[in-house]
Amino acid sequence: MSKRKSRVWMFFEQLDNDSRKVKCNQCQVIISRGGQGKTANTTSMNNHIKYKHPTLIPQLGSAIKCSSTDDSTKSQISAEELPKAVPTPSTSVSSEVSLSQKSQQNIEDSLTIHWSCEDLRSREINIAIGEMIALDNRPLSIVENTGFRNLIRKVKPKYNIPGRKYFTENIIPQLYEETKSEIRRGVMSAPAISVTTDTRTNINNKESFLSFTAHWFDDSFKYHHAVLQIKHFPETHTANNIKNCLEEIPTLWDIDTTKNSRRCTRQRQKCDESN
């Protein structure tokens, strides 16, 4: 196999069963190289990074020319073909320093081997970012904000942060299922649970919602509580409608309401006997 000179290869892997195609390490998409052997090229790979993962372009240095005013231009320019910048007399010193720093940064980026999305270290950071989004009620778009990405690049240069779609389709659903399972185990193992509920009406659209919160103690007598559901409640707020809604929610969590009722009844009988 010939030596790969293009930096774009750091984001792709060649398929073992088809040398004409490569797989993107960022989104797992299969891309054709347009030929085989000497006829194959990296144009489609560069274009994929340019239009699907534009945040990775700085890591390629000057391998890709990206113009915000002309999206139809798709020519590939190597570092050797770029003309040397000639600074104007008024800004010669600052321009030379800026170009030197940019060149040094591109060299460092080209020598950095980034972790793949499936790397255990990447997955641990992805989970931590997902937890931050959930706990701090941050928008998913934060992972694509320039300041946040610059911070991550400084802290973990080898970590390549995915886009918001990856967090929406993978990390957030995973965290949801894990949290739901943990709450379910706590509710199911509790000797008894108490429930509080409340209704709220949005003043803008007049839509109402009913909350269902469970409270319980574990075997170590440690207090726990969790909001099991916030349910849309378009019906009138009559006692019968609220009762029907509250009876429906426990079945979604496999909560045996009759068992808890029997326990409460026994406890009340014991209290009556002691008195």
TrEMBL record:
Subcellular location: Nucleus
Domain BED-type: from-to ranges: 3-60
SMART domains per UniProt: ZnF_BED (SM00614)
GO MF: DNA binding; zinc ion binding
One biological process term in Gene Ontology: post-embryonic development
Keyword Amino-acid biosynthesis: no
GO cellular component term of the entry, any: nucleus
Alphabetic keyword roster: Metal-binding, Nucleus, Transcription, Transcription regulation, Zinc, Zinc-finger
Region (Disordered): 72-101
Pfam families cross-referenced by the UniProt entry: zf-BED (PF02892)
Low complexity bias: start-end ranges: 84-101
Main subcellular location of this protein, as a coarse class: nucleus
InterPro entries referenced in this protein's UniProt entry, alphabetically: RNaseH-like_sf (IPR012337), Znf_BED (IPR003656), ZnF_BED_domain_contain (IPR052035), Znf_C2H2_sf (IPR036236)
Name this protein carries in UniProt: Zinc finger BED domain-containing protein 4
Organism field: Eumeta variegata (Bagworm moth)
Gene giving rise to this polypeptide: ZBED4
